[in-house]
Amino acid sequence: MTSNNSILDVQYNTGCCDGSSPNNQNMGTTPEPSCFRSTRGTQDNPTVVPVDEMTVLVANEMNKLTFQEREVVYEDLHGVSRPGKECHETLAQTIADTRNEIASIRLKAAHNKAVFLNPEYVNSENFILMFLRACKFDPKKTAIKIVDHFKYKLELFGYDNLGKEITYEDLNEGTRNALSSGAVQLLPNRDKAGRAIVFFSFASLRYENADDQLRAIWYIMMCKLTDPEVQRHGTVQVHYNVHYSTPNLHLDLLLRSSMIAKAMPQQILGVHFCYDNEIVQPILSMLQMIVGSAARLRFRSHFGSPLEIKYSLQNFGIPYESLPLDHNGQMDCSKIHAFIEEQIQAEERRKEQGGRILHPRSRDVLMGRGWHQQEHPGNLELARIVDEKRHEYKAARKLHKTNLNWTIVEIIKDGGGRFLERSHDSDECAGVGWAEASDENARDKVSKCFRTTTKRNSKNGGSAAAAMPNMNNDAEPFPVSSSYPFDSVPNKKARVAI
C-alpha cells in the first residue's frame, strides 16, 4: 500500500474518473497524471506541461509524512476512517490549557469584545470543545483558531452579532438570496463514514458582493458544526462544477472563503472537485492552492459526465443520491429551501428565554463602571452627547437639569438604543444576560455622566470628548466602524467614566 504508485496516486490527484487525463482519453496512450497539465500549455500541446508548481508542492508535503500519516490520508479519502476516542479524564485540563493559551495572545480585540458582550457563550466548555475537536485537542492551535474565528465574525457580521450564534434573522437580503441559491449547502445525508457533506456549485453562485456569499457560508457551516457528531466525524467537500462553462474564477470569494474556513471549527477530511469542461481547470488549481496542506493531500478531482462522476464519488463513500441534483445533473434547490425553513422554526423556538436580553446591541447604553462598559459603542455615544450639552447643563437650574437628563434618555431611545443592566432576576440567572433598566435608572445614568464629565472638564481644562480613547487605534485590521480598543487600556486619566 506504500508503493511508489500509491504515493503518486495522492500526489497526482486531478484527472478523469477512470484515472486518465481528459486529453489522453481513448487514445491508446499511457495515462498521464493530470497534475502535469496546466492551462499555460506548451507549443506542441497547449494543455500539457512537464511539471507544474502544484506537483512539486504536493510531492514535498507527501514526503514529509510518516508511514502512519499516509495511511490516515488514504483512510480519510476513502471514507473508512473513524474518529479517535476522547479522553474525558483530561478534557477539563485541556480546556483550561486552551483558555490559558487564549489569555497569552496579545492581539485579540474581537475576542475580547465577544467575551464582554456574552461571556457565557464565548467561555462555555461546549464552545471551546467544538474548536478543540477541529484541532485534534491541541490547545495552542485551538486558541489561535478561536481568536481568528471572532476576528472574521466581526468583519462579516459586525459588533451587534459578535457574542451570539448567527440566526436567519441576522442575515440581510443579499445574504438570504445567496443562501437560497443553493451554491453552498450542508446536506442532510452523511457519507459512509458518518461525515457531513458540504456541497459547492460555482454555477449556482448568485451574490451582489462577496460578503453576502461569505455570510451565507458562515451561517450554513455554523448551523451544523454545533452538532457534536459533525465535530467528531469531520466534513467532506464536494465541488460540483458540471455544466459550468463561465470562466469566472470568483477569485476574491475563493481567497477570502479559504481564510474564513481556517477559522471554522471543522475537520476537512476530503475534497472532491467534479467537472466536465477544461475551462474550469484554473478554479481547480486555485482551490488546490488555497485549501491548505491537510486538505490538499486529501484532494481528488473527477472529470467526466454526471454518470461517470456518480460512480467515481461512490468509490470514496459519497452517495451520489445525496447531492442536490436532479436526474440530469442540474441543481435542485428543494433541499436548501427545506433547510432554511427548518432553521427558521428552530431559531424561533430558542428565541429570548426568560425575557432576558442575551446580546446587547451597539446602540445600547450599558450600566456599570467597568472599562468594557465605557468602551461599548452606545456608552461612547452617550458620552459624546453629554459633552455637547455640558455647557447648557452647567448653566441650568435644577429643574432644567432634570429635563435635560430626560431629553438625552429620549435621544438614546429614539436612536434605537436601550439602557441595560446586568440581569438579577433569580439566583440561578444572576449576572447572565441583560435586562432593560427603568426610566428612572436611565435618567440617573445620564445625570452621573453629566457630573463626571463636568468634573473632569474643570480638572483637565478641556473637552471630555477629547479625552475619549482613539476609536481607530486597534492594532488588528478591522474596519474603522467596528474598531474599539479592547486589547489595551489607556492611562486612567484618559478615561471617560460614564
Strand order of the largest sheet: 1-2-3-4-5
The amount of beta strand, in percent, is: 5-15%
CATH topology of the largest domain: Phosphatidylinositol Transfer Protein Sec14p
In whole angstroms, the N-to-C terminal distance is 69 Å
Q: Average pLDDT, to the nearest integer?
A: 78
Shape: elongated
Number of helices: 21
Tally of distinct domains: 3
User: Uncertain spans, ≥5 residues at pLDDT below 50?
Assistant: 1-15, 18-51, 426-431, 464-498
The helix/strand series, from N terminus to C terminus, equals HHHHHHHHHEEHHEHEHHEHHEHHHHEEH
Largest sheet features: 5 strands, mixed
Assigned CATH class of the largest domain = Alpha Beta
Pfam families: DUF6824
GO cellular component, one term: membrane
Biased composition (Low complexity): 464-475
Region (Disordered): 22-46, 453-498
What does this structure look like?
The chain is of the alpha/beta class and 498 residues long. 47% of the residues lie in helices and 8% in strands. It has 21 helices and 8 strands. The protein has helices at 4-11, 53-63, 67-77, 88-104, 109-117, 119-122, 125-134, 139-157, 173-180, 210-225, 228-233, 251-261, 281-290, 293-296, 306-314, 334-350, 371-375, 377-388, 390-395, 398-414, 439-460; strands spanning 184-190, 196-200, 235-241, 268-275, 299-303, 365-366, 419-422, 434-436. It has a 5-stranded mixed beta sheet, sandwiched between helices. Strands 6-7-8 form a 3-stranded mixed beta sheet. Helix 5 packs across helix 8 (139-157) and helix 18 (377-388) crosses helix 21. The model is unreliable at 1-15, 18-51, 426-431 and 464-498 (pLDDT under 50). One of its GO terms (molecular function) is phosphatidylinositol bisphosphate binding. This is CRAL/TRIO N-terminal domain-containing protein. Residues 22-46, 453-498 are annotated as: Disordered.
